[in-house]
Amino acid sequence: MRRLFYSEIVSFNCTFRTVITKGEAIHFTKSKFGSIFDRNLDIQLIKQKMKLIYTLVLLTSLLYTNAQTTLRLNSNIVLPKDSIESKALITSLNNFLISARKSNQENKFVFESEKIETLILLDELNGIERSEKFQDIFFYKPYLTNAVLLNDSSYNVKVSYIGINDNEALLRANFEFIAHKTRNSFTFSSPLLLNTRNWKTKKTGNNIFHYQNTINLKKVNEFNELTSIYDEKLKSINKRVDYYCCENIIELQKLIGVEYKLDYNGRTQGIWSSKLENRKLVILGNDNANFNEFDPHDLWHDRLSLVIPRKEVNRAIDEGCAYLFGGSWGLTWKEIFDAFNEQIASEENTNWIEIKETPIYFKTSGFSNSADYIINALLVQKIEKEQGFSGVWEFLRVGPSEKGNIRYYEILKKLTGISKATYNKEVWKLIRKEIR
Ligand SMILES: [Zn+2]
């Protein structure tokens, strides 16, 4: 049986290994150039051949320093006419993809002036070669499928990640990058800025909204007001956030350069973000092309993440703040608390220390909510009332949850006088007070 198209692809890696490692290939190259010198041929031709030798030597050394080459080429692909440029593009792309296996910050092949826009795409590349099913960390291989010259210094390049199993080609993802020429090599960016270059923008405070047609100004103002309230609590200043308003996750992915990714098959909505120093980039792919909606709960998490990495704060306390300040799933704090009261607090024997270790949940409009988050909301409310937000800030920085939550109870006692021994009794008091 004839194998599929992609089994015919000649690997870039293998093509050059032939030249580098096989004795006869090197011999052939040498003898061919020897005959050129003997016959004293056109000097122009010699220059061209020397250029080729130089390129091969350069490429060979690059390949040796990068033992793990990855990019594969379809032999029919149309590459830049200039062979030096073509090889520089392929080598740089190869290095960019290899670097994408490591942390985003280590990738030296990212186009510096569009770094935050590219980080969001690098998140999608991370782990792309791995297949759990086939127990292979390099199962999906990258194939260059197109390289189109956009102008004198940039190309649009497309890469597909494909794994072959039993003569069957399995597509994991199609990516699109912009390759920017810098001296003799290339750096890469997401096509986000290029794709949205004709979009409109609305700046409000330090938030910049990017949209295609119209934007709901009333919602933008509401959003700005709540942002200011959160930022004031967090003493957060000069943080710039760019929001791109999209219809759905399909549009979101297309804008940033993910043409297809198996992982999101069938999914309609999503919100993706990236962060770099004082900037954050948020792409709204949740039926929000005109910014008619925003979630005050998630906005809390977003603003907090601008001042401290979320992994450094206590998750339950962070959620407690988000529920108290922004409700959840479109419901207000009061509506959420009533549901908690009906479904959880109605059980008189509930032990609040135990639910901290083994969470229990209650439902609101089909969504699950952790009861412990509501208890933390009540504690945050008490601390903020008695000591201002600086007390809540100290509480948040208890750090990640650990078995037994020793540090959590230690700081709680310092802030409120509530110890682990009195926790259950005091939490019941806070619940009864909130019911009234
Ligand atoms: Zn949350």
Mind explaining what this structure looks like?
The protein is of the alpha+beta class and 436 residues long. The protein has three domains: 5-191, no CATH class; 196-307, Glutaredoxin (3-Layer(aba) Sandwich); 315-435, no CATH class. It is built from 16 helices and 13 strands. The strands form three sheets. Strands 1, 2, 3, 4, 5 and 9 form a six-stranded mixed beta sheet that branches. A five-stranded mixed beta sheet has the order 6-7-8-11-10, sandwiched between helices. Strands 12-13 form a two-stranded antiparallel sheet. α13 crosses α16 (420-435). The chain is elongated and about 75 Å long. The relative contact order is 0.07.
What is the straight-line distance between the termini? 76 Å
Q: How many strand segments? A: 13
Overall geometric form: elongated
- Distinct helical segment count: 16
Content-based structural category: alpha+beta
Question: What about the largest sheet?
Answer: 6 strands, mixed
N to C succession of SSEs: HHHEHHEEEEHEEHEHEEEHHHHEEHHHH
Average pLDDT, all residues: 86
Percent of residues in beta strands?
Answer: 15-25%
Low-pLDDT residue intervals, each spanning 5 or more residues:
1-43, 57-67
Rg (CA only): 28 Å
Helix content range: 40-55%
* Count of distinct structural domains: 3
Ligands, ions, cofactors: zinc ion
Q: What key phrases describe this protein's structure?
A:
436 residues; alpha+beta; Glutaredoxin; 3 domains; 5-stranded mixed sheet; 13 strands; disordered N terminus
Secondary structure layout plus pairing:
Elements lengths: L11 H10 L1 H16 L4 H23 L6 E2 L9 H17 L15 H11 L15 E11 L2 E12 L2 E15 L2 E5 L2 H4 L4 E5 L2 E5 L5 H17 L6 E6 L3 H8 L1 E4 L8 E7 L2 E7 L10 H10 L9 H12 L6 H13 L6 H6 L3 E4 L2 E4 H17 L1 H8 L9 H11 L3 H16 L1
Parallel strand pairs: 1-2, 7-8, 8-11
Antiparallel strand pairs: 2-3, 3-4, 4-5, 4-9, 6-7, 10-11, 12-13
Helix pairs in contact: 3-4, 7-9, 9-10, 10-13, 13-14, 13-16
The structure holds zinc ion.
